Known about the structure:
By secondary structure, the protein is of the alpha/beta class. It folds into two domains: 5-172 and 237-279, no CATH class; 296-328 and 375-449, no CATH class. Helix content is 45%, strand content 13%. The chain has twelve helices and eight strands. It has helices at residues 5-19, 67-115, 130-141, 155-161, 256-273, 292-300, 309-329, 331-346, 381-393, 395-411, 417-429, 433-449; strands at residues 53-55, 145-154, 174-177, 182-195, 206-215, 220-225, 241-249, 350-352. The strands form two sheets. A five-stranded antiparallel β-sheet has the order 3-4-5-6-8. β3 and β4 form a beta hairpin.
Amino acid sequence: MPYPKYLRRSIALLVCLSACISVHAQADEEFLGDDALMMDAFKVSVYGGKIPINDGLTGKKYDGDNQVVIDFALSFNKLLLAYHQKLVIDEYKHMEFRLKLGDEFEYEMNTLSLAFNFDKFELDRSQWMTRERAIVSRLINKPFFKISSLIAWDIDRLNEMAPARPKSKYVDDIHFDPESQSWQRRVTAKWEVFFRPNYNNPKNAFHTQKEQGLNLDTLKGFHYIERGLPGNVPSNAFLDVKLTYPIFYSDNNISEEELRRLQEAFIANLYYIYDPFSWIARRETRFRGGFRQECQKHIEGERIYVSDRKWFDANFSRFLSDAITIKLQGVEEIHALQMTSKHFNESPQVLGAGVDLLNWNRKEKREATSKPEAPVRISAKFRYAMIDAYLRFGNAFIGQIQAQLAQAKASRNKINGQQMIKTIIADQSGMSFNAFSKRAVSIHESLLLKHKVTG
């Protein structure tokens, strides 16, 4: 099947890496900076030795001689270890990037704050990435996944009996799809977290679980998180995730291309099913959107002479956060995050390329709260009017707001903040605020479409 663009490079890289993987992986040291502990991620022993193969039809040990099955089994642990290593490195680099971006955001916000004669702006770093650090620590010291065996299914024999299902203890994880007239595979798993915040109080315990599943052939699936992780979750709170991995094989197809197809599909599957950071949020949304709450709290603490204080604090702080995001990352970051958030808000249970509840068996009756995909519409019209004004007029726009607020403070006469901004935009654009806002919304809705996640 064709894979999403963001997966293709990882698939090619990991297939090549697994072919020459070294357990000590000194060659990857350049990615890890000075943190020697990261090297422990290359010493995990759980992905060593031969992976057991069971016959899906009989439920017993596979005793066939299909070379594709055997070669895939030989490469299985290398692929899994390579993915595990990449997961650690990518997250480590991502956290470093976000920490650096946080420092830059603080500097820019403090510069703006001082320009408005506000107090110094400082971010509270004490709670930054505590959950991510716990997950990375667990990954370095002990992998999450324990795959007990491969389940090899003879696709030719399955096709002979279709749509009837074989009698097998592994049959729950295969399904004949009447629409495509083909057999499909799945993986389902439960991720459990348990710890005692206070060992002196045995009744004080935290427990939650994440149930997830993925159609290994369509890359569509589901996930349900019972409740989120607290900030004080320790790395040893995560229990092992145990599962089996099914594959289809045919004695009529034992080519190198078939082997590579199995390997590429396995990596594509791992991208979705082995992502412990999805306990928090996928990388597409984590740490993005500036530091809006911190900015608002900062503005709320200042003496500003506006009559509509509640409206002004929320909208002005949001604008400052947006302006810094545009300076550091470009307006595309705002567009991309809005569309990504829209996608996940509409389909909160999605895992993979789309939602599939995988109710393949009688006992399974999962339901989704996903909504139909909504058109791309901007509801925060004032926000985008200010963004567009900043993109067009830059510091001159901010300078006018600064001058108006300074004048109000000097005279101690409160002004209406919303009307002030409307007047500044009208004066600088040469058109009414309503006309400017309407044009801005139209322009940015068309730009948002470029970042549409689905369709």
